[in-house]
Design brief:
Number of strands: 4
Number of helices: 2
Helix content: 25-40%
Order of helices and strands: HEEHEE
Radius of gyration: 13 Å
Largest sheet: 4 strands, antiparallel
Shape: globular
Strand content: 25-35%
């Protein structure tokens, strides 16, 4: 169970970022799959990725990765995603897609955490 409009907002922010940070001719993939506990949404791109040392920080308001500060934006999109995911007590993570990044939302209660 979730707020459909808020989850759409989170997904829109992830897709917008994936498009913005992928190079011309790059790839953006949105995948919905089933896990034993519920749905999993993944947004994968072929951009520069998120360095391991910045994976916590990218979910903070106004944070911009060092390598992508030349791109337009305010640094609010991923903090909005994190807030929506936390509100639903879902799981959130970012990992390497080699190349690029993969953002994953696990759509079942993770009351003890929102991991990255």
């Amino acid at each position: 169970m979730c707020d459909r409009a808020l989850l759409f907002e989170a997904l829109s922010n992830l897709v917008d970022n994936a498009i913005k940070f992928s190079p011309a001719g790059g790839m953006v993939k949105v995948q919905l799959s089933n896990a034993s506990l519920g749905a999993v949404i993944e947004v994968t791109d072929s951009g520069p990725g998120v360095p391991p040392e910045e994976r916590e920080a990218v979910f903070q308001r106004f944070y911009r990765c060092e390598a992508t500060r030349d791109k337009p934006g305010s640094g609010l999109g991923l903090s909005i995603v994190a807030a929506i995911v936390a509100l639903h007590e879902f799981g959130l993570s970012v990992e390497d897609a080699l190349p690029g990044a993969r953002f994953r939302i696990e759509c079942w209660p993770h009351a003890d955490r929102v991991s990255r």
